[in-house]
Design a protein that fits this description.
Structural class: alpha+beta
Strand order of the largest sheet: 1-2-6-7-10-13-14-15-17
Bound molecules: adenosine monophosphate, magnesium ion
Largest sheet: 9 strands, mixed
Oligomer: single chain
Distance between the termini: 81 Å
């Protein structure tokens, strides 16, 4: 064998050794946490993920936020060239061509409207505007409590069948109706951000858009994510119950999340479409645990409107969907699929089985 061939062979052997060594080191390397917070969709966004390559992790996070912004640009009610802004501006005037994202969310909104018998209604934009529930997003000072006649008038214009869909064109026939995706768009955005991360090979992490959360896989050590439901009275540092989750969404709607106060009375942001007023019942929060965040987002709002008994009944009839209800008098009710997995942290609360 010539010297040249020997040297070439030695080089190849060395290369293979380095490659194996490199791969072994990579395999035993601990995944590192990469995280970023950004203000998106009128709320505090948080993406955490675990990866062996922080560089590609950061790239994945940026792409996920890009996807969320794309959705925001279609569905925002303050961006004047968004689909929803244009659709509402042109109610009773002309149809508007919308993005596939907007179409997807509108179709889901209609499906949930039927399924919840109108408790979830994306056509109540005129009522939510009266109550100023999207204050942060439409940038106005909190309004006064609306007059009863204003509410009764707005309530006449929330019939979702006034929304016409023709391929990718939407038209609101009723000139006094408007669409509000505030109870569903965040959930969709979380699911799409998760899909983006998964497509880039991320297997562990979470996306949180102001309380609409999806946990991806399990923690890097293989254990489940430990999630808590916060105290409606004491805030996020006080946890009422804990639950272990893998590959799941968890979304809470509560009357303490956004509200205005007048004469010692709280007017919160979850509207009962049948009255036009903030839903008033025994509940302070509803948490939905399910396989998609869009479901969790919409069902948590809907179940809050339905109240404890009807809400629990509604959830029991759905697949891949569980719920935890907290009441004003500190009772906890959970759907049958999750009851035994709840860990009670606050002894002032009672878990009813
Ligand atoms: P969430 O914070 O997910 O419970 O959703 C509340 C937001 O959804 C509000 O800020 C409104 O924009 C909108 N919303 C309120 N009530 C309803 C309802 N009954 N159906 C659909 N959307 C609603
Ligand atoms: Mg919601």
């Amino acid at each position: 064998m010539s010297n040249k061939t020997l040297i070439t062979k030695a080089k190849i052997v060395l290369l293979v050794i380095f490659l194996i060594l490199g791969l072994t080191i990579y395999r035993f390397q601990k995944p590192q946490l990469v995280q970023e917070n950004q203000f998106v969709l009128g709320t505090f966004g948080q993406i955490h993920l675990y990866t062996k390559s922080p560089k590609s992790g950061n790239k994945a996070i940026n792409q996920a936020y890009q996807r969320i912004r794309e959705i925001e640009n279609s569905m925002s009610i303050i961006i004047s060239d968004s689909d929803i802004y244009q659709l509402n501006e042109n109610a009773g005037i002309k149809p508007i061509k919308v993005t596939q994202d907007t179409l997807n969310v509108i179709h889901k909104g209609l499906e949930y409207y039927e399924l919840t018998k109108g408790a979830f209604n994306i056509g109540l934009g005129k009522i939510s505007k009266l109550w100023g529930v999207n204050i942060e997003t439409d940038n106005k000072i909190p309004p006064a409590i609306p007059k009863e006649e204003e509410i009764l008038d707005a309530k006449k214009h929330i019939d979702l069948y006034q929304l016409e869909i023709n391929n990718n064109e939407l038209f609101i026939k009723d000139p006094k109706m408007s669409i509000d995706l505030g109870g569903i768009a965040k959930g969709y955005a979380v699911d799409e951000a998760v899909r983006t991360l998964e497509g880039l090979g991320i297997k562990s992490g979470f996306v949180n858009l102001g309380g609409d959360i999806f946990v991806l896989g399990s923690k890097p050590d293989g254990t489940a994510w430990q999630m808590g439901i916060q105290s409606p009275e004491l805030g996020s540092s006080n946890v009422i119950v804990k639950i272990q989750l893998r590959n799941s969404s968890i979304v809470t709607s509560g009357d303490y999340q956004r509200y205005i106060e007048k004469d010692n009375k709280r007017y919160h942001h979850i509207i009962d479409p049948s009255t036009g007023y903030p839903a008033e019942n025994e509940l302070t929060s509803v948490t939905i645990i399910s396989d998609t965040t869009i479901k969790g987002d919409s069902y948590s709002t809907a179940a809050f409107v339905m109240g404890l008994e009807k809400g629990l009944d509604f959830i029991e009839n759905l697949e891949n969907t569980e719920a935890i209800f907290l009441t004003k008098d500190k009772r906890i009710y959970a759907s049958s699929g999750i009851r035994d997995e709840i860990e009670l942290m606050d002894k002032e609360y009672k878990l009813f089985k």
